[in-house]
Design brief:
The protein has 294 residues and is an alpha+beta fold. It is built from 5 helices and 13 strands. Strand 9 (229-234) and strand 10 (241-249) form a beta hairpin.
Amino acid sequence: MHAARRVAVAVLAAALIAGCAGGSHGANPSGTLESTEVDLASLIPARILQVRPQLGDHVKKGDTLIVLDTELLTRQRAQNAANRESNAVQQQVAQDALRQARTNLDLAGTSLQRTKGLFQQGSATQQQLDEAQSKRDVAADAVESARHQIDLLQSQLVGLDDLLKVNDQQISEGAIISPLNGTVILRNAEPGEVATVGAVQLRVSDLDTLELRVYLGEQDLAKVKIGQQLPVLVDALKGQQLTGTVTWISSEAEFTPKNVQTREARTQLVYAIKLAVPNPTGNLHIGMPAEVRL
């Protein structure tokens, strides 16, 4: 009797270890609950005016979570907008100058042709012909100069438009928006502080649906498919059965993760799968161990 009990205990222990290893030989695979987390950071260096959510607050997608001081950027934009208006006025003046230069060129060209005719008839001197040619050349240079001025102003206008777009983008980044519905699980910013570019101010996690990643041996892989619903047991809920939906199945085998207890289990090739586990009551938390019943 004692020997039989020892064998039964050994078999049970082996089954539990196999379950942690990823579900080989028909065992129920286990893992820990995870969530989609998004770190929110500033893209501009600026003083923080408001941090609206508190730690643990639920936020909605599109909510403004942090407000930054963009007064300097607003002033820069106003200056660039004024420069653009000035450029538009200068372009109008340059267009008027080009029209006048073209008129002068037409008149100088007509005068040159008339002087050439008179010169051929002997009624105009070489000096008069040279002066007419010179006036025509000066008029042509004036047309070319007006064109260059317009091109320069147009190039400056493009640069000013680009600056205004940058200003608008930076000003819009003064409001840090939540990209998802979730819960604030990290608050690392306070009003009055200076937001450093790239430094995490808030972390938002989607706790409405958690993710469970487990590993299956090749012989168990055929038991699951995308969209399939499987029973999930969470240790902390004392055997309460939940339902998880298979959302992803790895197409490539990998070695069992290093955190598995036995060396033999770590050398097995397994396939990772992910399940979405609804959390409408908020009883599930990141890091809780859970088991999938195949």
